[in-house]
Amino acid sequence: MLQIVFEEHTGSDLIFALRGEVVGARARELIVRWGEYKLLRGGRTLFVDASGVTTIDRPSEAAIRYLAADGARFFVNGSTTRTIIDLVCKANLEAFRIGRRDFKAIIFYRS
Asked: How much is the pTM?
């Protein structure tokens, strides 16, 4: 089960927190909810806190790459850290290949 929580912090940070398993139909839900929250951000930076993600399946890997390609900044920690870093790096490479040289997804490690 995937839980998506939108956290608004004082200042300019908005955090899209993911908890649990990003699997199956949850990949589509993740993309839809991301689009909804992007509309609410009002120019503020939107972070994805993926430190609570326990499982990512193949269809959901594409969803994570989509978020990265769409400018997400990621907080990672835990069992899926290596997978998320790999997916964000792939998104950066894909953006570079299509000529988006200004794009660079960023990952922050939370201890």
From this structure: 0.82
